[in-house]
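Re: that backbone. Tokens:
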């Protein structure tokens, strides 16, 4: 009987030890699935043009301001000032609060070696505006250097 009990403990130990690597393998698979889900959930990075289009369509000043240069010229219905990036974002937010966008399309665009521009038409609840976005290449990064919002007659 003693031999049977010893044999039982030996077989039981082998079974227990053989289970641990499988448990670790299962844990590794679960971690891989979680990492895969994080990758799927991650939002794509928008380029400047798409950010400008989406920002003006949805009144998202933060999305547009992400591409502002550290200092930016903003011309808003005839008043032009040089603002810091955060000040310009606030000016744009205020504009969106007063003028709810209904539709925005880029009507024209142009590009040279270090600059480009977009001209768009913004329709709001208080009228139409012509939007001009001037972009400069600074340290291999596209940044908005000048933003003009003027009444479209």
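Recovered sequence:
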């Amino acid at each position: 009987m003693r031999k049977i009990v010893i044999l039982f403990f030996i077989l039981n130990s082998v079974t227990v030890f053989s289970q641990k690597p499988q448990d670790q393998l299962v844990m590794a698979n679960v971690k891989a699935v979680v990492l895969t889900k994080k990758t799927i959930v991650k939002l794509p990075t928008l380029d400047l043009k798409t950010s400008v289009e989406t920002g003006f369509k949805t009144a998202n000043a933060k999305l547009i301001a992400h591409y502002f240069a550290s200092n930016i010229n903003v011309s808003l219905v005839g008043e032009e000032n040089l603002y810091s990036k955060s000040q310009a974002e606030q000016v744009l937010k205020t504009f969106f609060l007063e003028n709810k966008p209904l539709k925005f399309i880029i009507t024209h665009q142009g590009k040279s070696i270090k600059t480009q521009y977009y001209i768009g038409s913004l329709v709001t609840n208080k009228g139409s505006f012509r939007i001009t976005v001037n972009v400069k290449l600074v340290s291999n990064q596209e940044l908005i250097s000048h933003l003009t919002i003027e009444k479209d007659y």
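The first strand starts at residue 68 and ends at 76. Helices lie at 2-41, 48-58, 61-65, 85-98.
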